[in-house]
Amino acid sequence: MARAFVVPIPINFNEVEIGAIPTTIDEKKIKVGIVPNPIIPPHWRDGATLVNPIGKKSKTRVGEKYAPIVFSEFFGNSRPVEMEIGCGKGKFLVARSIENPDTNFLGIDRVSKFMNIGKTRAQKRALPNIRFLRAEARAFLTEAIAPASVSLFHLYFPDPWPKRRHQIRRVFTAEFLRMLHARLLPGGLIEIATDDEDYFAAMKKTIAATAELWDHARETMNQRILDGMNKTSYEIKWAAQGRSLFYAELKKR
Ligand SMILES: C[S@@+](CC[C@H](N)C(=O)[O-])C[C@H]1O[C@@H](n2cnc3c(N)ncnc32)[C@H](O)[C@@H]1O
Q1: Predicted confidence band at 61 (pLDDT cuts at 50, 70, 90)?
Q2: pLDDT at 12 > cutoff 50
Q3: For 146-213, where are the E strands, in sequence order?
Q4: Domain of 87?
Q5: Who lines ligand 1 at CB under 6 A?
């Protein structure tokens, strides 16, 4: 059910303090519109603040709208773009951006508190090829990211929501995968990691349900991307606790 309302666009580009800020973005712009996002379940679209299925207010506002990003303007060049969804403190992405200066990196997280640590790390090193934005992944990817524009999505340790009644909040759904698939370039990759065996089993079912989209779907880490040196904060934390870690890679057909 679509709801009409008027919302100021909370252009999250104020998070972008490194390098060029896109000139096409008007932060004061007011948009009158319909919430078009079919990916957010209808019962989440109730009122001004997103209300999750157990009635708690979410940090994400229903009306949060994102202006489309043209990567060549956003980064000032036409190099390939990798995105980390739920980048946390950005440790992994900052290290990867240093190792791959000819690639652009965009980290998004719906919580800025920890993401700002990554932003500060990147600023201290004056890294020209990495940006961080505070954004809710589903809405942001749907509204801001163009089809066939991303070479690689990193999705590491998404919140597992282990209680059955909370599992509706999991980000890894068939709809989400189809949306990522559409935004990937041909041959593009999705790298996935989780420490939650139950979530991994559910992920594998979702991958199987979208099998026609993938050139390959493997249940191992891609050593070239997640090598022994570059780990995410949660990867280090869970490995130190002796937890089993599960990895997968999807390649767009
Ligand atoms: C368990 S942490 C993992 C952080 C990082 N990927 C790592 O491996 O260290 C999950 C992160 O995803 C973010 N997150 C959860 N749901 C999100 C959503 N719908 N959109 C954007 N970020 C989200 C959380 O704020 C949190 O920072």
Answers
A1: low
A2: no
A3: 150-156, 184-194
A4: 71-252
A5: 86-88, 108-111, 114, 136-137, 156-159, 171, 232-235
155 CA: nearest ligand 1 atom: 6
Tell me, yes or no, if the pTM score tops 0.70: yes
Are residue 34 and residue 153 in the same domain, yes or no?
A: no
Residues 26, 46, 109, 159: which is the catalytic one? 159
Q: Which structure tokens are listed for 131?
A: 């940006």
- Residue 225 located in a structural domain: yes
Q: Output the residue whose Cα is nearest ligand 1's atom 3.
A: 157
Please indicate, yes or no, if residue 66 is contained in any of the structural domains: no
Beta strands in the chain (DSSP E): 4-8, 30-34, 49-51, 57-61, 81-85, 104-109, 130-134, 150-156, 184-194, 214-218, 246-252
Is residue 95 located within the same domain as residue 127? yes
Residues 129 and 190 grouped into a single domain? yes
Distance 53 CA to ligand 1 centre (A): 19
204 and 127, same structural domain? yes
**Rounded to the nearest whole angstrom, what is the distance from the C-alpha of residue 159 to the centroid of ligand 1?**
6
- The pLDDT tens digits of the residues spanning 175-222 come to 999 999 999 999 999 999 999 999 999 999 999 999 999 999 999 888
Probe target for ligand 1 pocket from 111, 176, 232, 241, with the most ligand atoms within 8 Å of CB: 111
**Does 206 reside within a domain?**
yes
Is pLDDT above 70 for 155? yes
Distance CA 148, CA 200 (A): 26
pLDDT tens digit string along 135-154? 999 999 999 999 999 999 99
Number of structural domains in the chain = 2
227 catalytic, yes or no?
no
Last residue of some domain: 12, 30, 61?
61
Same domain, 112 and 235: yes
